[in-house]
Every structure is written in C-alpha cells, then in structure tokens.
From TrEMBL:
<feature type="binding site">
    <location>
        <position position="81"/>
    </location>
    <ligand>
        <name>iminosuccinate</name>
    </ligand>
</feature>
<feature type="binding site">
    <location>
        <begin position="277"/>
        <end position="279"/>
    </location>
    <ligand>
        <name>iminosuccinate</name>
    </ligand>
</feature>
<dbReference type="InterPro" id="IPR003473">
    <property type="entry name" value="NadA"/>
</dbReference>
<comment type="function">
    <text>Catalyzes the condensation of iminoaspartate with dihydroxyacetone phosphate to form quinolinate.</text>
</comment>
<keyword id="KW-0004">4Fe-4S</keyword>
<dbReference type="GO" id="GO:0005829">
    <property type="term" value="C:cytosol"/>
</dbReference>
<feature type="binding site">
    <location>
        <position position="64"/>
    </location>
    <ligand>
        <name>iminosuccinate</name>
    </ligand>
</feature>
<dbReference type="Pfam" id="PF02445">
    <property type="entry name" value="NadA"/>
</dbReference>
<keyword id="KW-0479">Metal-binding</keyword>
<feature type="binding site">
    <location>
        <position position="294"/>
    </location>
    <ligand>
        <name>iminosuccinate</name>
    </ligand>
</feature>
<keyword id="KW-0662">Pyridine nucleotide biosynthesis</keyword>
<keyword id="KW-0963">Cytoplasm</keyword>
<feature type="binding site">
    <location>
        <position position="128"/>
    </location>
    <ligand>
        <name>[4Fe-4S] cluster</name>
    </ligand>
</feature>
<comment type="similarity">
    <text>Belongs to the quinolinate synthase family. Type 3 subfamily.</text>
</comment>
<dbReference type="GO" id="GO:0008987">
    <property type="term" value="F:quinolinate synthetase A activity"/>
</dbReference>
<keyword id="KW-0808">Transferase</keyword>
<dbReference type="GO" id="GO:0046872">
    <property type="term" value="F:metal ion binding"/>
</dbReference>
C-alpha cells in the first residue's frame, strides 16, 4: 500500500522555515562566525557525513523527534527531551554532544553530563517559546506573593522539562520536582504528598490536563497565574482556595489545535482516531480519543492495526515521518494548515554542517553551559524526578 499522507496547506511562515524564500526583515539573533554553508549547497550531506566520520567516537549527535528529516538523518539517537538528556548522560566518553533540539534541552544535557564534555547547539536562536514564558524574576515575584499571603510553605513547585535551567534550579531550591509529559501524573501525586498546593510551570495545559484528567480535580480547583499582572491577576482568596496554580504559559505549536480541528476531521474521515499531546488545550484533549507524550504517540501508531485512520495533534515533522513510515495506516495532521515548531526548525543542515566542521577544525562553537549553583539545584529537581515511585 502506498502512503496516504497529504501535506497540510502551506503558510508563508512555514515556507520560510523550510528554507524556501527569504525574509530580509527577520532578525536571526545570532551569527555563526566562519563559513555557514548556504541551504542550497548541494554538498551538504557529504560534508556532514565527512565531518561526522572525522570526529568518530568523540562526537555524539542527539536529534529531537520534531527536527527536520535532513537533521534526523545524522542523529545517533532520536527521542523526546527527557530521553535525549538521559542518552547524553549515558555517553561519558563523548567529548562533544551536538544537540539538535532547542536551548532548554541542551541545558539539561549540560547539567547531566561531565564538565569535560561540551554540549553544542548548532543555532543559538533555537529557543522555546514556552520555556521563555517563565522567567526567573517573574517566578520569584510570584513566590514572594505566595510568601506574603502565608501560602508558600504549602506550595510545591513543579516544572515541566520544557523550562530553562534557571526555573529548574528555582524548583530544586524550593523542594520541587521536574516532570515530563510521560510522568506528570506521578510527579503531581508526589508533590501533593509534600504539600497541599502545586505551582505548575510553565505549561498551563499539561498542568490542567493532568490535574483534571489524571488526578480527578475539578476545573475550579485550578487558577491561572498571569505573570504580567499584579498578583498574577488573582485575588488572595483565589490563591488560598486553589489546589493547582497554573503558570500562564503554553506551547505555540500544540496550542494551535482547536476543537474545530477535531470536529472537522471527524466529519471528514469517518472512524478516525484523534491522538493528541497533553500540551494541547483542555477542550482538545477531552475531545480526543487518546492523549499522550511524543513517545506515547509513536508507540500508539506503531501498535495500531493496518487500515486504521489517525489524526495526530503534535509537531508536523514527526507526524509526516510517522505517516511515511506507516503507509499501511492513514495518518494525517490534525490541523489543515502547516504548523512547525519555528524554533526547532532553526536547526537545519547548514547549521549542523557548520557546527561539525568547526569541531573538526578544533573550535567548539555555541557551547551551552549552566553555572554550577543553578546546575546543582536543577540536578536536585531532576534527581527527584528520577526517584519518583
Ligand atoms: S514544540 Fe512547543 S514546547 Fe516544544 S520546543 Fe517548540 S514551542 Fe517549545
């Protein structure tokens, strides 16, 4: 059977991310000193292969599931952010860890690897809009508000893996835990054994979906703290009554799926199963047939019987790869329009070639480092996650 994959409609932004067209008004934010190859260079694949071969066992390349195919082709291992951080930690002999993902992932890899190992992000502009929605100063202000109300002693901070090292460090300093989309339920159950309230950072949707769907909370048990408003935009009574204080952050990719997307695909494809990531909005998750992490989505598709139809609500690069790998199923993107993670897509073959050739030349480009104190507290919160029952 041939693949039934249908490419979603292109948008102008998506075409730019794919390297077609150019936007002179776009500020990339960082320079890559030296020879950054052009995207059209026909020798890029050979250059990447040659540089990788020259570095041999000194190099380990990690590729997040949302990366482009041209980058995934050079990854020694692929996975979600947590799996990749663990893979990095399990390679103490690798001198260079090239992280094809986004900034917070490279920070976690640096925290979990030795001081003699360099973690490299091929394009420093590859950040994460969700992680950027929780800044340390804002979180400290929120904690002061809770302290002034006499509530901080009851609150356990929990942060999603998709947060900066600063935020993980804050959470470790205040006795909290890091979680992933795979273990958020276990992390929250542990947190509610330590205190009566949780401050969940930075993804409101993962926090709300886990609290309501896994822990059985009412929506009214959750409040939304807006860091751009005094007191988070909440009254002292709302903060006192809440069991779950959700930070107002979201993923700009998963936040795009709507209830309309779900209804539209169900009317168009009879019998379709809707499979979404828990970073999607609550109404999307409750309307879906299955919800789970990136690794869960991959396993669900791999285990599905031939002939089944799936509308998948996660990043487009992964959905397209799953569709092409499973032509025996009808796999489609949940939305009609293209939606890439724009920051993940910053890592392209020219940047990978540039980073690898710099290493071959004896220069270490774009090294990501976390200061020792922040790393120690962040490690505490990560270790607490690893120790979850
Ligand atoms: S998909 Fe969402 S959470 Fe993941 S890196 Fe992109 S913006 Fe951040």
């Amino acid at each position: 059977m041939t693949s039934t994959w249908t490419e979603p409609s292109n948008t102008a932004t998506a075409l730019l991310l794919l390297g077609r067209g150019s936007d002179p008004a776009t500020e990339r934010g960082v320079d890559c000193p030296g020879d950054l190859p052009a995207p059209s260079d026909p020798g890029l694949v050979e250059r990447a292969a040659a540089a990788k071969a020259a570095l041999g066992d000194r190099l380990f390349v990690l590729g997040h599931h949302y990366q482009r195919d041209e980058v995934i082709a050079f990854a020694d291992v692929t996975g979600d952010s947590f799996k990749l951080a663990r893979e990095a930690a399990a390679r103490p002999a690798a001198e260079f860890i090239v992280f094809c993902g986004v900034h917070f992932m490279a920070e976690s890899a640096d925290i979990l690897t030795g001081d003699d190992q360099a973690v490299i992000l091929p394009d420093l502009a590859a950040g994460c809009s969700m992680a950027d929605m929780a800044v340390l100063g804002q979180v400290e202000t929120a904690w002061e508000t809770l302290t002034d109300l006499g509530l901080a002693g009851d609150v356990v901070p929990v942060t999603y893996m998709n947060s900066s090292a600063d935020i993980k460090g804050f959470v470790g300093r205040h006795g909290g835990v890091v979680c992933t989309s795979s273990n958020a339920e276990r992390a929250l159950r542990w947190a509610y054994e330590q205190g009566s309230k949780v401050l969940f950072l930075p993804d409101q949707h993962l926090g709300r979906n886990t609290a309501v769907l896994e822990l059985g909370f009412a929506l009214g048990d959750c409040v939304l703290y807006d860091p751009h408003k005094p007191g988070g935009g909440l009254t002292p009574e709302q903060l006192r009554d809440a069991k779950m204080i959700l930070w107002r952050g979201h993923c700009s990719v998963h936040g795009r799926f709507t209830l309309d997307s779900v209804n539209e695909v169900r009317s168009r494809v009879p019998g379709v199963r809707v499979l979404v990531h828990p970073e999607c909005r609550h109404e999307v998750v409750t309307a879906a047939d299955e919800v789970g992490s990136t690794e869960y989505i991959i396993k669900a598709i791999e285990a599905a019987p031939p002939g089944t139809a799936w509308a998948v609500g996660t990043e487009l690069n992964l959905v397209r790869r799953l569709a092409l790998a499973h032509p025996e199923q009808q796999i489609m993107f949940l939305d009609r329009a293209v939606c890439y993670c724009s920051t993940m897509n910053r890592i392209d073959l020219p940047h990978l070639v540039w980073a690898l050739e710099e290493l071959v030349a004896g220069r270490v480009p774009n090294r990501i480092t976390v200061d020792a104190e922040t790393a120690a507290y962040a490690r505490k919160a990560l270790d607490q996650m690893l120790a979850l029952p």
